[in-house]
Specification:
The protein is an alpha+beta fold. The protein is built from six helices and four strands; from the N terminus they run βαααββαβαα. It has one domain (2-150). It has helices spanning 7-22, 24-27, 32-67, 92-113, 126-131, 141-146, and strands at residues 2-6, 73-80, 83-90, 116-120.
């Protein structure tokens, strides 16, 4: 079944579901066919998450290259519990400009997060899934809620 989902939904849901799947007590209560459908859905989503993360990093790198250089910043040191750490600090005369660029970058990323993409969702009868869970399941309501996008 095809479904449209926002990028922000995908970017938030993927790590949350992966965390649930790391808990063997929770996965043992999931039927094999459900786990298989879930795995295929997560593979479908992983491309969006990876692409977004890579693109976000490219934009951040561009901004850092523009401002974290000898012209617009300088090196400073700071004492930490791990010893002396060096870092670059933007020169005062460029700070307002830099803040504006950072906000513009965040706005662009928010716009991307608000876009929808169409996915081929492998569905599952969620009523059946819940009805067949053991009474003492390790799955919590919040865990099951994460899977709601798979409902038929």
């Amino acid at each position: 079944m095809k479904k449209e989902l926002y990028n922000i939904e995908i970017i938030n849901i993927l790590p949350a579901i992966n965390k649930v799947l790391e808990d063997k007590e929770k996965t043992k209560d999931m039927p094999i066919k459900f786990r298989w459908a879930l795995k295929k859905n997560l593979q479908e989503f992983s491309f969006t998450v990876k692409s977004f993360d890579e693109f976000k990093q490219e934009l951040i790198d561009e901004l850092q290259n523009e401002y974290f250089n000898d012209e617009k910043s300088h090196e400073e040191t700071m004492e930490t519990e791990n010893g002396t750490q060096k870092f670059r600090k933007i020169n005062d005369e460029y700070m307002d400009e830099y803040k504006i660029k950072v906000e513009e970058l965040y706005e662009k990323l928010r716009e991307l997060l608000g876009e929808k993409n169409e996915y081929e969702i492998h569905t599952y009868d969620m009523d059946d899934f819940v009805a067949n869970l053991p009474d003492n399941t390790a799955l919590k309501f919040e865990d099951i809620e994460l899977f709601s996008f798979m409902g038929e």
